[in-house]
Structures are given as structure tokens and as C-alpha cells.
Amino acid sequence: MSTPAQEQVFGRAPSGPTAARAEGLTKAYGSGETQVLALDSVDAEIARGRFTAIMGPSGSGKSTLMHCLAGLDNVTRGQVWIGEHEITSLNERELTRLRRDKVGFVFQSFNLLPTLTAGENITLPMDIAGRKPDQEWVDTVIDTLGLRDRLRHRPAQLSGGQQQRVACARALASRPELIFADEPTGNLDSRSGEEVLAFLRRAVDELHQTVVMVTHDPGAAARADLVLFLADGRIVDEMPNPTAEAVLDRMKRFDRIRET
Ligand SMILES: Nc1ncnc2c1ncn2[C@@H]1O[C@H](COP(=O)(O)OP(=O)(O)OP(=O)(O)O)[C@@H](O)[C@H]1O
Fold first, then answer.
1. What CATH number is attached to the domain comprising 167?
2. Does pTM top 0.80 for this prediction?
3. Where is the signal peptide (predicted)?
4. So what's the ipTM on this one?
5. To 10 degrees, the CA torsion angle through 99, 105, 108, 113?
């Protein structure tokens, strides 16, 4: 007998377009007795123009889900779409192009090039792709992130929070279909972390971007519109309009299940 959790497509917005979608997404690492099922038939949607957080216990499959949705990792079974494009049938070259055009990334470790200035780092992906930046949009992003007076600085001359803001600007600069943030506040003190979360929030509210963020922090998840909860490779719950307390309570239930 199927459970309600198996029938529900998590993340589905009541109306409006979808930025990304997974159907029956399964990812196994290894084979035989040592095989690990990191994702087990996940059906999920990421609504466009929303801020979605992905939470769950360590090893539940959060990073794997993000990597598969972003086309960074191949899938074992199932399908993934970014916008209208089914990415699971693309070859490596097509996938690289689609990722470059449609997806922005923010990593825990900033991943800025140390020899380039902040301004050069922001436009680097477009420079590599040979694309001319939409200067008006890039200026809006730079001003929204408060980076105007830091553009000539190199990463080593910036604080961690400022470096992560540059990474956010880089992710936003090409106006991608969606932005994936993997623990974006993990290396920041709480004030800088708050700043970065506020900017991700503004990217959604004011610049109408779509953000998907993996986090361990209930306070960070509370900045999202929706939290998807993963456990043992399956999405088991979702929480719209989360508060830090409600997210923490939900996470404690996972701990109790593990203990029993
Ligand atoms: N390259 C890999 N090879 C083998 N197993 C892997 C690999 N990557 C992930 N796994 C396994 O897949 C499962 C899901 O891992 P994943 O990193 O997606 O979890 P996570 O929820 O992001 O964990 P964490 O919160 O600790 O970062 C884990 O059991 C992990 O050990």
C-alpha cells in the first residue's frame, strides 16, 4: 500500500511555473552489497520565484538532491527538468551549456578566484562563456548586494561576508533560471550569515529570482518560503512559511526516530 508521502509531489506551488522538477529521481552510489541509495524515487518541484530550503539529517541526501537538480551529478533513474529542459537526457556538452546559462551556484567556501578583483569575479562566468553582461542588471545586483565600493578589491582584501556577497553577485549576474546555494552561511559568523540570507531573500523578493538552499541551520531555513525535509533519500515532509522554532521541532522528530 502506498503512503500519502509517496503520492505527494513536494514543493509544488498552488499555481505558477516551475523552475526545476524531479520525477522518480533515484541516485545510487556504488554497487552490490556496498551500494548506497542516496536518493530513492524523489518527486519534487521547485516553484519559480520562491526561496526553497532543503533540510534533513546528515547523510539524508540533501547535497545529492541539489547536485542532481543542478545537473552537476548524473542520476541512476528518473528525470530532472530545469525550466522546460529535461536535463537527464542531455550529453555532457549540452549539460555544461545549460548549466552555464540557467544555473547560478553559491558554495560554502565562496570559490572566488584570488587573483581577480571582486568585479572580475562577478562577471567571470559570462566572460568564460563569451557572453556580454547585461550591465544594467549587473549594476542592480551589485547595488542590491552593497558591493559598489568593493569592486576593485581582491578576495583576500574582503571579509568572509563580503566574499560570500561577491559569490552571490556572481551567481545572480547572468540572471539564471535558478540559484543553488550549498550551506552558504556555513563559513560565516552569525552577522555575516544573516546579511547573506537577507540578500538571498531580496534576490527572490525584489529581483524575482528562484533560490534553492541546502542548510543545517533552522534559522537560515526560516528565511525561505518553503522547507523540504529529506530523510533516508526521500522527501518526507514540507513546511511552508517556516519559523526557526517549527523547523527545529521538525528536525528533533528525526532525531527521536533515529534513537528509537
Ligand atoms: N561520492 C559518493 N560515493 C559514495 N557514497 C556517497 C557519495 N556521495 C554521497 N554518498 C552517500 O550518499 C548519502 C547521501 O549523501 P549526501 O552528501 O547527499 O547527504 P547530505 O544530506 O548532504 O549530508 P550532510 O548533511 O552530512 O552533508 C550518504 O549516505 C553518503 O555517504
1. 3.40.50.300
2. yes
3. none
4. 0.97
5. 90
